[in-house]
Design a protein that fits this description.
Low-confidence stretches: none
Keywords: Membrane, Transmembrane, Transmembrane helix
Strand order of the largest sheet: 4-3-6-7
Structural class: alpha+beta
Strand content: 25-35%
InterPro entries: FixH (IPR008620)
CATH class of the largest domain: Mainly Beta
Organism: Flavobacterium frigidimaris
Mean pLDDT: 87
CATH topology of the largest domain: Immunoglobulin-like
CATH architecture of the largest domain: Sandwich
Pfam family, one: FixH
Largest sheet: 4 strands, antiparallel
Shape: elongated
Number of strands: 7
Protein name: Cytochrome C oxidase Cbb3
Length: 149
């Protein structure tokens, strides 16, 4: 049997489309390839965008800002020494972009203007740290990206 150019091109396109469809179905059906949304209710989240920007600006306008750094002990959050520990309220969300199963939220509890999140709670890789806090009635939002190794 002899195959001409037209038949060969049609067979090649059919094989290519089958190949692509196989991978589409594999990614959609296999739980290993998790394609969740970054935020569950993103419309609700976006409606508060202006408020979030105001809190980020409040944090940016501070003379002395809190710092979020990673060291061998874990994630260290350091507030300026002139902040009173008991007046700082809020929480810290550690968000793992690659897998939401590792995300966790913790309350801010300062000891001598420092809070430590132990390294054992963190897996290696990128973490987005969102610290929503309040001091003397003003709301702030500090965002950092850290890499745990």
């Amino acid at each position: 049997m002899k195959i001409n150019w037209g038949t060969g091109i049609v067979i090649a396109f059919a094989l290519f489309m089958t190949f692509i469809l196989y991978f589409v179905f594999e990614v959609q059906s296999n739980s290993k390839y998790d394609n969740d949304l970054v935020v569950e209710e993103y419309y609700k989240h976006d409606s508060h965008f202006q408020e979030e920007m105001a809190r980020i600006q409040n944090a940016h306008d501070l003379q002395q800002k809190p710092s979020i750094v990673y060291n061998e002990e874990g994630v260290k959050v350091v507030f300026p020494a002139n902040f009173e520990n008991d007046k700082v309220k809020g929480n810290i969300l550690l968000y793992r972009p690659s897998n939401k199963k590792f995300d966790f939220n913790t309350q801010i509890t300062l000891t001598n203007s420092v809070m430590l999140i132990p390294k054992v709670k963190l897996v290696k890789g990128r973490w987005d740290v969102n610290m929503e806090w309040q001091y003397s009635g003003t709301k702030y939002l500090t965002k950092e990206v850290i890499y745990v190794n």
